[in-house]
Amino acid sequence: MSDLHVVLGATGAIGSAVVAELTARGHDLRAVSRNVTPGPHALRADVTTAEGAVAACRDAAVVYQCAQPPYARWAAEFPAFIRAVLAGVEAAGAKLVMADNLYVYGPVTGPMTEDLPHAATDPKGRVRAEVDALILDAHRAGRVRAALGRASDYYGPGGTDTVAGPNIFAAALRGRTARWVGDLDQPHTLAYLPDVAAALVTLGERPEADGRAWHLPAAEPVTGRAFLGLVRDAAGTTFRAAGLGRATQRLVGLVNPTVRELGETWYQHDRPFVADDSAFRAAFGPVRVTPHAEAVAATLDWYRGR
Predict the structure, then answer these.
(1) Residue 13 belongs to some domain of the structure
(2) What is the mean pLDDT of the segment spanning 79-108?
(3) Taking the model in full, what pTM does it have?
(4) Closest CA relative to residue 244, chosen from 264, 229, 266
(5) Residue (of 10, 41, 38) closest to 28 by Cα position
(6) Residue 105's CATH number
(7) What is the DSSP letter of 219?
(8) pLDDT in tens, 125-177
(9) Domain tally for the chain?
(10) d(CA 191, CA 154)
């Protein structure tokens, strides 16, 4: 039986972390990306087409879907992309592990659990719900085996395209203003990239994970003010800490398309945004997650080396 684990989007932040975790666990590996350097364990392929996805997934036991369209093009491109990936996974007779997020729920009151309705009304939330339905419908139909691993905003080595990325870590190291997106005093679940990768690989290894979504384990929710305090303690630099409010987001969004897109899901930043990961811990525990202080220090070390 094949032990080949294939990572789609292997050069991205989550994909790179999954590649490292699979290597550490000793699995046979194929890293797939349009940008990867071809080699014995790496394949350059375009998985937005069924032909590319079939080639990328050939002989796989587990496929980790860590790729995605550009953020501003999710609504237009994600469903067709996932249909292509499903074609590749089905042709290989493999299991699909989807690196997912929390957009499907929309604004909520209280911690998010996996049994909440998919009530998002914004375009990004609606398309994530559509994508998840495509995957789970394929699982129920017996076309593939599948599990979804949902994580909140992440940070960590390699995490540059994230709200907790250069605007905090690179800015702090340069002595500039480190900006938290949203209200500085609202609790927010932040996931550390190596912890996200470890949980996704666990879902790939464990058959009891199949057929549902799981919230991936993360350290305790943290406010922006407290998180920036941890960065200040570890950075060894002097910098100003500030929150990026809605008015500033709108203003910056006039010239910055990425910041402009944040307005669609601003509810994730102006109130508590907390994920309950107790189901994962009960099913697959004991689980060790990296404390924020340790994770912040490791992330700063990575940024220093850039």
Answers:
(1) yes
(2) 98
(3) 0.97
(4) 266
(5) 41
(6) 3.40.50.720
(7) P
(8) 999 999 999 999 999 999 999 999 999 999 999 999 999 999 999 999 999 99
(9) 1
(10) 4
